[in-house]
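re: ur question from earlier - yeah i can do the single chain one, its not a big deal. heres the input i used so u can compare w yours
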Amino acid sequence: MLQDQPLYAYFPAKDLARARKFYEETLGLRARRETSGGIEYEFASGTRAFLYPSPHAGTNQASQAYWHVRDLEREVAELRARGVVFEEYDMPGMKNGIVTHPGGKTAWFKDTEGNILALVQGS
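and the output i got, formated as tokens:
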């Protein structure tokens, strides 16, 4: 059953070198391995994301992936210090790039390719 299997994210990139620099130098990710098709990153619990070239990068107007974090304000502050700009949306509970909602908090940012990524704290 699919419910019992790991699920992985894709990060499409128009410019793979530019995107790789962002993910590794700005976000601080470490590549697990490089293949002829792209770069794989490994996260907690063995989850993974695959950065790969695509002319369609940045065309999705919704979140591409999210990280579930314990301290959203700390993560946002650290990423801002590295140059990450958080999105401001016209929605209830949004203040300084962080929206507070009944289930927790969320903050969104875009990578160099225009993909929308999120940090989520809460259930």
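The chain has one domain: 2-122. not sure if urs matches, ping me
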